[in-house]
Design brief:
Serine Threonine Protein Phosphatase 5, Tetratricopeptide repeat, 17 strands, 3 domains, 539 residues, alpha/beta, four-stranded parallel β-sheet, 17 helices, elongated
Length: 539
């Protein structure tokens, strides 16, 4: 087999680095906490129930009394961290001063379970000295619970709650730096529209850790040139290049409009895009093809205004449809203070960070509006690709097909000849039964300028184990190839099959219009009239 790139394998973080918090007023909250602790081997002594309000919002006083200070006391009394004076060098020429800090910590992560409030409401009574250069729009003290609680080690000494705090952990490549001894707790939540969805986040994470995170990666750009906003496109484009370089089949939409529902988004491992207020396009379909372990993120100012909603905002609907982990904003953060998904993707995929580590290494600011949803210990890239590939083949797992695709893509990035890659793939026995590998062979033939061979491989893929959205993509691709080859009759039959197989396809009007044109061209008058009636009905 061709060369496989290797990532450094590091042992997964143990559950004893985690504190799990639930709302003692909600039975469902405790059930999620107990389930997570059992699945991740978190010691029972590190599962805490606090008496909190049951709404998604809490006042700053409620946050301080029922969560922030309560957790600090527990961590100290249970000897999970050690607090004492630490000398800090000042930057204004004054002598070093001793501040109360975390000197040692057994834990790094906090997992908030379904029922723990999501956001802290603004407190008009909070009076703090503001920086002289502070921008008014940032001088607010409402925040995501996760983001403020992440700063718990810093609250042991003076900390300002109005406005965001610049994060010294942004873009770090040393995961060990993300520690309470350096001033941060990595806070994430198992949450979503229902307790069952919240509990399922750890199940899918564990599955992807065992089997790998497979599938395709989709990136939706705004194609924007405004200097104040183009950074969002740059972050997403960087993420796409990282996924491409590490062997994923990627799709980058540069139309400037959000990806429509008609786009066949199949077998989703990654989705990163922006910018619509509410869930849109492929994610509004009854079934979304998220792979186990999938990361999905839509950049919007209020993407996580609630995690209970299933048809508004983004985070709740993405979790409902099967995403394993995501991030979002509970209130207006302003673009520069949102997560850098390029930094996230690099650390998660390339460096093999846990989801929690990658999430906090991607945030330019803390004590602000970002919530992190998913198992923070989730780490699907802890094994080198070669090791994962061998394990899947030894188990006879069909998921090995995706490893073959990544291996082919990695070698293509390295400049291996297309004909050599196609020859290697053709010799793999699994390719004869895998729609994923047959489609990849079709793509390689297309890239070589071999349309007839491409058509044969796409046709074969359609006879195998295709998913509904993969089937639509193959039909659309095959139709274009057949028309270009002058095979109008075959193209006509292909589009008829699409109409029969996918009667709810979002672009069925366009499909019927193609059928009308082809039926007339082929002299099929009766069928042309039948399809014209469908066109009128849909119009």
């Amino acid at each position: 087999m061709l060369l496989v790139s290797a990532l450094t394998s590091v042992a997964a973080n143990p559950g004893d680095e985690v504190v799990v918090i639930y709302n003692s007023r909600m039975r469902e909250s405790k059930a999620v906490a107990d389930y997570y602790a059992k699945q991740r081997n978190v010691p029972a002594s590190q599962v805490f129930g606090f008496d909190m309000v049951t709404s998604e919002s809490m006042s700053r006083a409620e946050f301080r009394n029922s969560l922030q200070e309560a957790l600090a006391k527990k961590l100290t009394s249970e000897k999970l961290w050690t607090v004492g004076p630490k000398m800090v060098v000042t930057t204004n020429g004054q002598p070093a001063t001793a501040v109360r800090s975390v000197l040692d910590s057994k834990i790094r992560y906090v997992v908030l379970c379904y029922g723990v409030p999501l956001k802290i409401l603004p407190d008009p009574t909070l009076r703090e000295l503001q920086p002289t250069n502070a921008r008014p729009e940032f001088m607010r003290n409402e925040a995501a619970v996760d983001s403020d609680l992440a700063c718990l080690p810093q609250t042991l000494h003076a900390m300002r709650f109005s406005g965001p705090l610049q994060s010294p952990f942004y873009s770090v490549t040393n995961a060990g730096a993300l520690s309470p001894t350096n001033g941060i707790l990595m806070v994430a939540r198992l949450d979503g529209p229902t307790p069952e969805i919240a509990r399922g986040l750890v199940d899918k994470a564990l599955q992807a850790e065992r089997d790998g995170l497979h599938g395709r990666a989709y990136f939706d750009l705004r194609k924007i040139s405004d200097p104040g906003y183009k950074i969002g496109d740059e972050w997403i484009r960087n993420a796409s290049e990282i996924c491409r370089a590490l062997g994923y089949d990627i799709y980058v939409d540069e139309s400037g409009a959000p990806i429509p529902a008609s786009f066949p988004m199949s077998q989703i491992a990654f989705y990163e895009g922006w910018y619509t207020e509410n869930v849109f396009g492929p994610f509004t379909l009854p079934e979304v093809e998220f792979m186990p372990g999938a990361f999905a993120y839509h950049l919007h100012s209020f993407s996580a205004s609630s995690l209970r909603l299933t048809n508004r905002s983004w985070v709740g609907p993405l979790l409902l449809k099967g995403a394993t982990c995501t991030m979002g904003c509970v209130d207006e953060p302003y673009l520069a203070a949102t997560p850098d998904v390029g930094a996230f993707t690099g650390r998660f995929v390339h460096f093999g960070f846990t989801f929690g580590e990658a999430a906090y290494a991607s945030q330019p600011v803390l004590s602000w509006q970002t919530t992190v949803v998913g198992d923070p210990l989730y780490r699907p890239f802890g094994k080198p690709l070669q090791q994962l590939h061998e394990e899947l083949e030894a188990r006879g797992s069909k998921l090995a097909e995706w490893c073959y695709v990544r291996i082919i893509n990695l070698n293509r990035v390295r400049g291996v000849a297309l004909n050599e890659l196609a020859s290697v793939l053709e010799r793999v026995p699994l390719a004869k039964t895998s729609s994923v590998m047959s489609e990849k062979l079709g793509d390689l033939c297309t890239a070589q300028g071999k349309p007839s061979s491409a058509i044969l491989n796409y046709e074969r893929a359609l006879t195998l184990d295709v998913t509904p959205q993969q089937r639509i993509r193959l039909r659309l691709t095959l139709g274009e190839k057949l028309l270009a080859a002058g095979r109008d009759e075959d193209a006509y039959n292909n589009y008829k099959n699409l109409a029969g197989e996918s009667p709810d396809y979002a672009d069925r009007l366009i499909n019927y219009q193609k059928l009308v044109t082809l039926a007339i061209k082929l002299g099929k008058k009766d069928e042309a009239e039948k399809f014209q009636e469908q066109v009128k009905r849909l119009q």
